[in-house]
Sequence to fold (1070 residues):
Amino acid sequence: MNALPDRYASDERVLRQPGDGRMLAQRLTKRYAARITGAFVVPGREGSFAPLPDDLPPALAQALRSRGIEQLYSHQAQAWAATQSGAHVAIVTPTASGKSLCYTLPVITAAMTQHAKALYLFPTKALAQDQVAELLELNQAGALGVRAFTFDGDTPGDARQAIRLHGDIVVSNPDMLHQAILPHHTKWAQFFENLRYVVIDEVHTYRGVFGSHVANVIRRLKRVCAFYGVTPQFILCSATIGNPKEHAEALIEDAVTAITESGAPTGDKHVLLWNPPVVNPDLGLRASARSQTHRIARLAIKSGMKTLVFAQSRTMVEVLTKYLKDVFDSDPRKPARIRAYRGGYLPKERRAAEREMRAGTIDGIVSTSALELGVDIGSLDVVVLNGYPGSVAATWQRFGRAGRRQQSALGVLVASSDPLDQYLVRHPEFFHGATPEHARIQPDQPLILLDHIRCAAFELPFIGDAMFGTEVATPWLDVLGEEGVLHREGNRWEWIADSYPAIAVSLRSVADGNFVVVDRTHGRQTIIAEVDYTAAPVTLYEGAIHMIQSVPYQVERLDWEGRKAYVTRTHVDYYTDAIDYTKLKVLDCFDTSHAGCGEAHHGEVHVVRRVPGYKKIRFYSHENIGYGPVNLPDQELHTTAVWWQLPQVVLEAAFEERQQALDGFLGAAYALHIVATVAVMAEARDLQKSVGSGDGAWFVSADATGRGQIRGSDGQPATLAADVPFTPTVYLYDAFPGGIGQSEPLFHRHEDLVAQSVTLIERCDCRAGCPACVGPVLAADEEAATTPKALALRVLALLVAL
Amino acid sequence: MRQLRTQSGQSPPPEVIAAKATLSSEVLRLIQGRSRIQGVAQRTQPTDRVVPGVEIAPGLFLTEALMEWGCPTPLIDTAFARWQEPVAHRRLLHFDTETTGLAGGTGTRAWMIGAADWQADGRFRVRQLTTTTMGGEAAMLRTFATWLQPDTVLVSYNGKCYDSPLLKTRYRLARLPDPLSGLRHLDLLHPVRRRWKGVWENCRLATVERELLGVVREDDLPGSEAPAAWLNYLRGGSAVNLRRVLAHNRQDLKSLAGVLLHLARLPP
Fold:
């Protein structure tokens, strides 16, 4: 540790005086020119302002002035005008552009002048609490008499009655609306009778399966509102996505007025794409993204800039936090300058981190995507992304965290060795010119729809040929009648079962229970963290080093059934990294159809995720200092899939070697996945792809060189003997237990999907392959005689109907 | 769909089927994996469908019985419930509902309301409203409302937490004014718990009536089977268990009044 000051001596050459984003960008560019593959500036904007509207209640205008708000941004004024005209409104402006005032003004005005109520929905409890704190401050500033409360799972029972009766603004989340408010709507009768506004923030998070559920919860909300004779106005807010207006309209199934021009002033935003330097030219190995991220963050913090680092995993958050703490927090007598922020911390720890960031006492914060949403942490100067977040929209949302008025900010994307990252830094125009992804939902997905018609029938009877969303409910009610939960009398369908259907329906499709981490150091029994079910197998195995605010704890015992991990404080110079892989096996084939020279199938599959062991990695040197075994049950998923296969003889005739066929299948899988995701309007994460053998004996993953590598059922690289059957298979499967009904429509469109994939690849402007068609390809492949693109096309051509 | 219907022996009117949309076979197959279709049995030959009482509205039966029970004093001492003033016995209305379950929320309904009071001549009157269709609910709620006066004092066992909120929900859903709010309510569960919690195995009404009144029920249908008894009848089944629920409910009301008088006579 004594060597540290010398180690960073070169920093001084970069840092001569404190600076802003522009200066730091210039210094980094000068010093590390070879690493910067792309640099551009998103120009700042002068603010566009409007006076406080004349029709604001004087007390509210006074409260705003006393909080220093003398005028509005133009988009806030537009939102005011639109809401006053009675329209549903969607506001799509960047982070920190004063979005919340867009809904606060009409909501508080209506509460003050008409005793009207408002319901706010945020995707997380943290955001809801932020919002209530903000409302209370404004309320106090003007003694407005408006009462705002959060209503979530933490709200004590005795407070709930008061909130139902006296809350002017109830701030909750879609899950609570679904499970607690709507099924008890009669208790909320006064609230609903006076409900004027429904505010839904962060609507870009309501996409895919989650979004489809939320759209149905909104249908139920509108149905209950109709019972109480009200038609509330919706005000929706979104971060930048490709289709904000369309998405808002899909969620509330009504026309919305979209406000997309922000009037908030911003400084210039400098963006650098950064590729770690080649450290081993023979092997083409680059330095790690982590080392570069650490360096950039260190320089930024030393220049006096508030810096936020996004890491892709919780482990990486802790590693980077430790490195930065080693530099900046070496003196334990001084308050910490660096903090970690991620899911899995207890709420009060996260609140403390948020408070300290807002207060400006923290200089650097390292986070997972948890901070991507609008958690209020004040203004930042620099955002460093340790790896590409996976979508253009998420990248801009993260960069959006940096930027103060009138002052330039810096965003740096540090590429990892992942082929997609490497593609992006080689093709900055892909990133710079790309429109953000579209958010898609499919509220009429049959299983989701049936779940919500079930919940809706519990809330209010269905009468006659009532519609639910865009569907006539009757045939669905017949099914529920057969099931015995509804009883039909004349033209009324009423709930008859002794059950509470909303409890059985999880909007987020994860209901397996969180793990708690229990610290047993020195005989203590303290819960120090929570870990969600999916992350537990890769972070809480016995032997794992589990870091919390970069303090290492070792997992001594994992009680899988009891959902507890027992840890003790430890002092080691390494961290652990789980090895995990996924394989797939066909259980039952429901249907088969010819597909060119091969066949397409639809059926049930068994997906296994296994963690066979972990690596111990030394801090700083990052050498692998050992392996440990992990003994955990496989994570299994029964789901439905569609898959394509080609007979061995056809493959042998078409390809000179098996490797080419495997590469072709990987490329074909990539293209089919893109096309299929669009076809069923799914989120990419809800539909997964895989390439393996039909019998689960082996599977294929891309290795570090981008080549398809066969791995055996133990996850180790393997080679197939020449006499072993060779039947590579492309799978697309629902990433949810029991399937979410995407694979059957895909099967029925299998010819169309293959044809569209061919078109997608053929029309792509790239030569060898890219993330827009067969997946990112390595530089070496761009000049290859037989490109990955050509191989994928060859596989798909064999699957095209004759 | 059609096939399912045939299996379950249900045959809806053909014009209804023609008029409405149907689900595609693909969707049906998909949701049948998820939906717990039980193929609700419909009885073809209902045996015993006799519901006691007079049908005072379509789907609503009223029974009324007068009996000697309790011999109350004109004023009932309510100090056991920490009330300041005694209550005239003629103001008391004991009530108890039978419901479709304990799940709570807007999907649980009361299909029967029993209420009992002392007449001017000291006799105990037990009235029970039983619905035989779901459509009979509105008439039941309206009739029950006429039994309540502004000075009525409700007497129940756990009614503050269960029966009363449930009925309020039903009045709200039926768009009828809620006659319960504003009435005083003596919920005997709480004073019983204060006095005997930890003394008896539990404080359920069945235990309390045995310990305090020496009531031993014969051929009693447990309250937990009341939802099934009604559901079975509603789907065309026998009324035998429905009548047993009526008897059970009548005994509950008598025990309620008995426990009240016992509590009122206890030394402070």
